[in-house]
Design brief:
Elements lengths: L28 E3 L6 E3 L3 E6 L5 E4 L9 E4 L2 H9 L2 H6 L9 H22 L3 E3 L1 H10 L2 E6 L5 H14 L5 E2 L4 H8 L6 E5 L2 H13 L7 H4 L6
Parallel strand pairs: 7-8
Antiparallel strand pairs: 1-2, 3-4, 3-5, 6-9, 7-9
Amino acid sequence: MKKPYPSSEPGLIPDNAEDADGDASASPERQCAITRERLAREAMLRFVLSPDGVVTPDIAARLPGRGVWVTAERRHVDTAAAKGAFARGFKSAVTVPDGLSDLVERLLLKRCIDLLGLARKAGLAVTGHDQVRDALRSAEPAFLLEAADGAEDGRKKVYFLAKALYTNVKVAGALSAQELGMAFGRDRVIHGLVRRSAIAENWEIAYRRLTGFRLAPEVDWFPEPDR
């Protein structure tokens, strides 16, 4: 089940960015090169051409030049690569690298890890079962972080404490314990929490995009409506 994207990500789109139709960046939406739907930019990915004509993911949407936008889901990027959508969008011959969707996933994962690292340095994130439970009692979090390969029992204890305190509890479970550990300078992290902030808003956008390319297990961890 797809969750809604935040309405904006400050600094995500530069003033001179254009989509494949040449729309000015003031528009809050972009048109997908595959579905032709117009969606919020936060729900999409921008691609540009390198100087030698290679299709390049522009995860932060800051690279110069014409952009082609694709809905942030693996199936749509795969279709764009296979069906010539990039050549049509750029109106030129292009080289699509092998495994483009896998490259996008790696870049989105890196962005998620980097943003969590920024949250840690800013004192906006905590890790550890007891530390997360203490943080929950002091303020409503932006996100709970639960390792995809963490134990069910510990995960439920944290989550249901959060549900007892707050109505809208968001959980991110698509990163492994090792991947979360990379963000926090540890070998492994099982439980974490991100406090409400601009960094957390940017993290949510990156995470929602990432779950278009890998499983979001949290949607199956807890019964409705406790997701």
